[in-house]
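User: Predict the complex.
Assistant: Input components as received:
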Amino acid sequence: MANALINVPERARRGEIVDIKTLVSHPMETGYRRTQIGGAIPRDIVRKFVATYNGVEIFRADLHPAIAANPFIAFTTVATESGTIAFTWTGDNGFSVTESAKIAVE
Amino acid sequence: MTHPISRRTFLLTAGGVGTAVGLAATATAQPTRGNVAAMEAAIKKIVGAAQITAGKVKLDLPPLSENGNTVPLSVSVESPMTAEDHVKAIHLFTERNPQPDVASFFLGPRSGRASVSTRIRLADTQNVVAIAELSNGSFWSARVPVVVTLAACLEE
């Protein structure tokens, strides 16, 4: 159902700035559209995205309906230590997806 | 000329009235379009009484977008990103989307670089505004105009 794609480098040098790309499949229904018979389509969006590095928050985003379907977010972080970078998306109607990636720092 | 109104004048006038009616209909059919005042209010809510200075922020968007449903956007801020001097947050706003807020990104010294990319929806040809909040409490902004040929659909 809900699929997340993440791109984190497998290994990095200590102190290197690494690029992280994330995408989660979600329709991001704005709540402004109507059906052909005029009924409003209720809002259904991803509201929050949080990235943690070994449990410490490194990046957070608040999203609104103006974010395109299948929210794509790319950001950077400093590779400090080997460990896990975890990503969580939460949204309307109890939407919640968690995905994580390992990074080895030399 | 026997007629008081020539055929040409009549057609021109009729055409004008038709267009005016058509425009009025479109205007009422889309009451959800935002405006600059709504955006200023949304910015005020985040910035408060602080002064916003133009500069430091680099906002990259295609100047002409064929499809308003997914417009690639990247924003970066000049900053050393140290514990003393870093970008705390980057906020994005639009002038004429139904809702002025687009997204808020919260960064810190562990980001290394103040640079974020995403994809947004644009309901109309308009300005997109990025506002960066620095750790010293100052606010910096960038404003980019985008021409949208196919708007993000509001209807089914």
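The beta strands of chain B are 52-54, 57-60, 64-67, 71-77, 87-94, 101-106, 114-120, 126-134, 139-150.
Let me know if you want any component modeled separately.
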